[in-house]
Design brief:
The structure is a single chain. Helix 11 crosses helix 17 and helix 14 packs parallel to helix 15. Helix content is 36%, strand content 19%. With 741 residues, the protein is α/β, with parallel strands linked by helices.
Length: 741
């Protein structure tokens, strides 16, 4: 009955619940009921609803449907664990079984209908939870957990069964965890640990074990949500809930696939507003990983480039391994906000310090050179021949006496220093023991972050097990790589939170006049001609060259005179995607005779290639700029996405692009440009003037508006090339392709 694989439908069961039951929308982040102002131009919510999950994790009464105490039965071990858990959380437990008078000495009820009064949680230990879920509404049960497997993870038939289960939950008003989940929510959480806690969300229960084990190192965990197939409750629901919990310092997630991209971003937005870090392992970076995750979860992993960009956009810290998830979540949960971003490496070995400093710089950390005054101060206790500029080589012996603490305090007292990293490559008593104790004592008197990398492979030394792990103020790591990654995430998170402005607050609530003009140009299921695609751009205020569509050589000559020589001539038709390859573009035409000849040649090629035309475009020739591409594509998970990158032929050769999920603001549009490897081209290279970056950003934002308003009707938009002219001169869309849904 307990499965080892998961599967999730893409059904929005929360929306189904509202429609089926007339449930009012949950309060928005501003504490008022959702109304039209809380919906975007597509009628989608702009704020994450926060489900009240208190009674899921801390119920007052629990029904165990299918409870057993028979020897050798799988349900017996589960029932025993639930009994112990119910006792710990102070819940009354009601066994339910049609043929048993009692279970473990507790009177057993024959059916759900016999449950006494309000029951907060029903745990379903049955092979087919559907009939039971349908009975729970009359019993007024608030939450249910379904362990059974054999749903969406098994294929089409299982997906259909899961859809029926989700619909039943929506009709009943019961919030369902699972199916195909496990016992992780009912683990024994230590209650003797203090400080901010980690809340854990996993789709695969086994993958959460390393984070759960952090309790043995003194790091508090408050919740574990094993989401399973997510027929109803999904990762986004738990992120939103945990972000509001005062005891939660960080949210750690293991995600194989997202049920709904929009819900995930709304939840991440809520966490960002609250300043609660979300650290996630997201499977699917490679084709193999994505394929395996799809078979394991039965849900969308999404394009990894889009998932990665969306997470960065909303401050979700993506890590690759479970060890990184442990270390990064633990640091972010417990560390205070940094007072400065300067990092100092201090070691008892010059070689160790140089190595770690090199790795830290490569990891993107800033290692400031300490001032001459600070270096002179350190040289009171450290020999003059040792470097103390940063990294600080203390030479070893000074940390074996009172000088060690003075060195540490002097570094931490520097206002440019926010983080001290001390790598201890191996135990070297008594020096290492004295050093560790001094670091712990110093950490107690400062608000700055003190990190120790304990490099011993043994890990049983008292300096590590008792002193370092006994401190709630020192962040202790076993590898340099994880330490540097966690510190970088810590600094980036607080920098992100300080600057965060939710894009959902500024997302358009109503369509613009541009939308009405653009919609009249749409042709469902068809590709637009270049001429029509450019009209679409014009509707949204995106500049295109002067041009005219003509259907005769004589008209082409007249148009060239009006446009102004030199001109470009291009065949225009809805079925033309690659005009240059077919020879359907002529550039640099400077006379009437060249225009007439070009018209005849273009129409003859089109006739030969059997390409229908709506005419020939006579266009202004625009030169001297940087060729970029700006586009819209539809992601199966997140919907419309906006891409910017190097254009022309370079887009296919270099694939140098950045992507964002609307809505986003100007700051994100500018950040997209910094992610491009070819960003220097916009700054001006080899004597060329800087490009008009402001104009490029404006085009990206106008294209985003188009994506938001036409997302349901626009399958693809490709502006390539968008010629970004020298600074102050704007940007011109030289070509465009648009495909309607």
């Amino acid at each position: 009955m307990l499965g080892s694989t998961h599967g999730t439908l893409t059904t929005d069961s929360r929306r189904a619940r509202v429609i089926a039951c007339g449930e009012p929308p949950a309060p928005a982040v501003h504490g008022r009921p959702a109304d039209v102002d809380d919906l975007d131009v597509g009628g989608r919510p702009l704020y994450a609803a926060v489900p009240d999950l208190d009674r899921l994790f801390r119920p007052e009464s629990v029904a165990v449907v299918g409870a057993s105490d028979a020897d050798g039965r799988p349900n017996t071990g589960i029932t025993r664990q639930l009994l112990a858990w119910a006792e710990r959380v102070g819940a009354r437990l009601h066994p339910v079984h049609p043929t048993r008078a009692s279970v473990f000495g507790i009177p057993c009820l024959p059916s759900v209908a016999e449950l006494p009064g309000q029951v907060d949680l029903a745990v379903l230990l049955v092979a087919d939870p559907l009939p039971v879920v349908e009975e729970l509404a009359e019993a007024k049960v608030r939450f249910a957990v379904a362990f059974a497997s054999g749903f969406a993870e098994t294929g089409a038939a299982g997906a259909a069964a899961q859809a029926r289960l989700a619909d039943a939950a929506a009709r009943s008003g019961v919030r369902l965890l699972g199916p195909n989940t496990n016992l992780n929510a009912f683990e024994h959480f230590r209650d003797d640990l203090e400080g901010p806690a980690i809340a854990l969300i996993t789709q695969s229960g086994h993958q959460g074990r390393p984070v759960f084990a952090l309790q043995e190192l003194g790091i508090r965990l408050s919740h574990w949500a094993p989401t399973g197939n997510e027929a109803d409750l999904e990762s986004a629901d738990f992120i939103s809930y945990f972000a509001e919990r005062p005891e939660v310092g960080a949210i750690a997630c293991y995600v194989e696939g997202l049920k709904d991209g929009r819900s995930f971003l709304l939840a991440a937005d809520r966490a960002a507003r609250r300043g609660v870090p979300v650290v996630a392992v997201k499977v699917g970076r490679t084709e193999t990983g994505a394929r395996t995750a799809a078979s394991h979860t039965g849900k969308l992993t999404g394009s990894d480039a889009v998932v990665d960009a969306a997470m960065r956009q909303f401050g979700v810290i993506r890590v690759d391994g479970l060890d990184e998830l442990q270390d990064t979540a633990a640091l972010l949960a417990r560390a205070r906000a940094p007072l400065a971003d300067g990092v100092v490496v201090c070691s008892i070995s010059g070689g160790t310090g140089a190595h770690v400093a090199d790795l830290a710089t490569r990891a993107g950390l800033r290692l400031p050179v300490l001032s001459e005054a600070k270096q002179a101060e350190l040289h009171q206790w450290i020999p003059e021949y040792l470097s103390v500029a940063n990294p600080v080589d203390n030479g070893g012996h000074p940390v074996g006496d009172e000088r060690g603490r003075k060195i540490i305090d002097a570094i931490l007292d520097d206002p440019a220093v926010g983080v001290l990293i001390c790598p201890v490559t191996g135990p070297f008593p008594p020096l290492s023991d004295r050093l560790v104790q001094d670091l712990v004592d110093a950490a107690e008197r400062t608000d700055k972050l003190v990190c120790v990398v304990w490099g011993s492979p043994v890990g049983t030394e008292p300096a590590y097990r008792e002193v370092l792990l006994g401190s709630s103020r020192v962040a202790t790591f076993r590898t340099v790589g994880n330490c540097l990654a966690a510190v970088r995430a810590h600094l980036d998170h607080h920098r992100f939170v300080r600057a965060y402005r939710s894009p959902f607050d500024e997302a358009p609530r109503t369509t613009s006049p541009s939308f009405r003009k653009a919609r009249a140009l749409m042709r469902p299921g068809e590709q637009l001609s270049e001429h029509a695609a450019k009209q679409l751009l014009r509707a949204y205020g995106i500049r295109v060259p002067r041009e005219q569509l003509v259907t005769s050589a004589a008209a082409a000559v007249r148009a060239a005179g009006l446009v102004g020589y030199p001109v470009v001539m291009k065949a225009s038709g809805a079925r033309i995607a690659h005009k240059t390859e077919l020879g359907l573009v002529k550039i640099g035409l400077t006379s009437a005779s060249q225009v007439r000849d070009a018209y005849r040649e273009l129409t003859e090629i089109a006739r030969y290639e059997d390409v229908p035309l709506d005419g020939v475009l006579v266009c202004q020739m625009v030169e001297r700029g940087v060729e970029m591409v700006v586009g819209v594509t539809h992601d199966d998970l997140f919907g419309p996405t906006v891409t910017v990158g190097l254009g022309g032929v370079l887009v296919e050769v270099l694939r140098d692009t950045a992507v964002r999920v609307p809505p986003f603001g100007e700051d994100q549009a500018r950040t997209m440009l910094t992610e491009l490897r070819g960003r220097a081209l916009l700054d001006g290279v080899r004597g060329r003037p800087p490009a008009d970056v402001d104009a490029l950003v404006e085009v990206v934002l106008r294209v985003q508006r188009m994506a938001l308003e036409l997302g349901g009707e626009l399958a693809e938009l490709d502006i390539n090339p968008l010629l970004v002219l020298p600074q102050g001169q704007g940007a011109v869309a030289l070509d465009a392709l648009a495909v309607c849904r």
